[in-house]
Amino acid sequence: MTTIPTNPYPLELSITGEMHDGYRDVLTPEAIQFIIKLEQKFGDRRQQLLADRQERQLKIDAGQLPDFLPETAQIRKAEWTVAPLPTDLQDRRVEITGPAGDRKMVINALNSGARIFMADFEDANSPTWENTIQGQINMKDAVRRNISYTSPEGKRYALQEKTAVLIVRPRGWHLEEKHFRLEGRAISGSLLDFGLYFYHNVQALMANGTAPYFYLPKLESHLEARLWNDVFLFAQDELHIPRGTIRATVLIETILAAFEMDEILYELREHSAGLNCGRWDYIFSYIKKLRNQPDVITPDRAQVTMTVPFMKAYTSLAVKTCHRRMAPCIGGMAAQIPVKNDPVKNEEAIAKVRADKEREAYDGHDGTWVAHPGLVPVAMEVFNRLMREPNQIWYKREDVQVTASDLLAVPEGVITEEGVRTNISVGLQYVEAWLRGYGAVPIHNLMEDAATAEISRAQVWQWIRHPRGVLQDGRKVTEALVKQMLTEELQVLKTAIGLERYETSKFPLAGQLFLQLVTEDDFEDFLTVPGYTYLQ
Ligand SMILES: CC(=O)SCCNC(=O)CCNC(=O)[C@H](O)C(C)(C)COP(=O)(O)OP(=O)(O)OC[C@H]1O[C@@H](n2cnc3c(N)ncnc32)[C@H](O)[C@@H]1OP(=O)(O)O
Ligand SMILES: O=CC(=O)O
Ligand SMILES: [Mg+2]
Which residue, by CA, sits nearest to atom 1 of ligand 2? Predict the structure, then answer.
């Protein structure tokens, strides 16, 4: 535990994370003061909005399904646009993402040839104290083009002349930073991530001709967007930065936000840089929010693709909504990553990514995400071929007519034993890595992160409870069956890595946590919340 020797703040503050090299360069007294102000000003509103989420869930459970809001009909009807895009956000055809805390990856991503690098404190980042603060050090050094790294093998990494534009994704509103407590209460992870990045870098970014850009994750309503907008206004005013300097792209990755896309853009219109279709969390949210509806159930995770009707409806509506408001609509992440040492499988993976990017470009997206530098040329070739201008905001998609029932349409397909086992095995492997501090991992040649793992555990939870949670062979998915499969899948993993590695791994804890998440009656809103109690 690190105590601040003389506490200059009027409130009781404790920062309990260990202090390593460079940490005091980001946790400066002035930056801490700024974070305290943000938390004092916005902490209670965040808590209230989280409580509103619970109330909304009760209404959905009682049969009041999500719909477009009558009270904001005027915003949807009226003609307005978001503020003009800054020059360096006009062409976002390929965006690479990766955990902010991994210094080597940050350099590789900036050098990857992608237009944008989204440095992630969310889905791809396990929020250990070390990842959080090292992530801020990495950001500070990257903004100043003063970032380098030498690998244990002696390979040296430094920035090339031309690098990607930086966008930072702070944690979602549900996550807290337990190492930073004010009056005994953990502060918001979102405000910490946003506040440190903004405080340290706004001046340097502006001097470089860019600005603080953010991706905002997991919003569930326009009121949550309003909170972000108010945070931006306050932060800019505090540091005497012109209003509208910050620009933010909101991930539409919850089923509820899909009904409020116009409203979200409107709330942020002075700061908006458009929307992104965060497909993995979106599928998770669809399952989570509708989990108690008698007629809603999803088939095997692999069958819930981007072309199932509810996914197609939401991405088309996102493009149409953005373009009407002169905002870009960025596509999402295909899960495939390059396959090492198997050219045939590698070509199959690349072909799947290419097809996904072609679909996005044809549908009108203004750019897309990739998970790996090896996929930058693949996505770049597609968007260069299919999107000749910097973006295709001109493509208004007036053909798109999406209703509430289109957004809620239940996907068809079957649940198989392999589907249940894959969910369990992938969930275990992901949670094990996350508990060790790795927020994105390759499993079976697919990128897995917090959002994809959430789908796996949410499906298992629902299949146990739903009367139609029945395998193709007629067996009901039950708690007993899941427990048996989990024991077997853990055994498979133990055999694969060997007893010695297993015993020093986090698999026993991951098994316990995963079992708890899928068997307890109350559905945990995010696996990362109980998981966080185990993180350093
Ligand atoms: C649902 C969502 O939110 S999607 C967005 C969040 N998810 C992500 O950001 C995932 C990003 N991707 C990754 O983290 C990684 O690609 C992984 C974990 C899936 C795979 O990583 P690895 O196993 O290291 O891949 P691999 O061994 O093929 O890497 C080869 C090289 O590419 C680099 N690399 C791989 N992915 C990335 C990336 N996203 N950004 C920068 N560099 C990367 C590696 O650092 C490595 O560099 P080196 O050759 O200098 O050592
Ligand atoms: O954040 C992106 C997603 O797909 O989830
Ligand atoms: Mg997400």
Answer: 278
- The CA distance from 493 to 203, in Å, is 49
Distance CA 363, CA 355 (A): 12
DSSP string, 173-241: TT-EEEEEEETTEEEEHHHHHHHHHHHHHHHHHHHTT---EEEE----SHHHHHHHHHHHHHHHHHTT-
Residues surrounding ion ligand 3 at CB below 5 Å: 123, 253, 278, 281, 451
Tens-digit pLDDT profile for the chain (536 aa)?
444 445 677 789 999 999 999 999 999 999 999 999 999 999 999 999 999 999 999 999 999 999 999 999 999 999 999 999 999 999 999 999 999 999 999 999 999 999 999 999 999 999 999 999 999 999 999 999 999 999 999 999 999 999 999 999 999 999 999 999 999 999 999 999 999 999 999 999 999 999 999 999 999 999 999 999 999 999 999 999 999 999 999 999 999 999 999 999 999 999 999 999 999 999 999 999 999 999 999 999 999 999 999 999 999 999 999 999 999 999 999 999 999 999 999 999 999 999 999 999 999 999 999 999 999 999 999 999 999 999 999 999 999 999 999 999 999 999 999 999 999 999 999 999 999 999 999 999 999 999 999 999 999 999 999 999 999 999 999 999 999 999 999 999 999 999 999 999 999 999 999 999 999 999 999 999 999 999 99
- Class of 414-532 in CATH: mainly alpha
CATH number of 29-283: 3.20.20.360
Taking the CA of residue 104 as reference, the ligand 1 atom at the shortest distance is 45
Is the ipTM here above 0.95? yes
Active site residue 342: no
Does ligand 1 have an atom closer than 6 angstroms to the CB of 335? Answer: no
Q: Do residues 106 and 448 make contact, with C-beta atoms less than 8 angstroms apart?
A: no
User: Is residue 113 lining ligand 1, measured as CB closer than 6 Å?
Assistant: no
Q: How far is the CA of 371 from the centre of ligand 1 (A)?
A: 6
Query: pTM for this structure?
Result: 0.98
Domain ranges of the chain: 29-283, 414-532
Kindly report the protein residue whose alpha carbon is nearest to atom 2 of ligand 2.
Answer: 278
406 is catalytic: no
Out of 102, 120, 300, 449, the active site residue is 449
**Does residue 283 line the site of ligand 1, with CB under 6 A?**
no
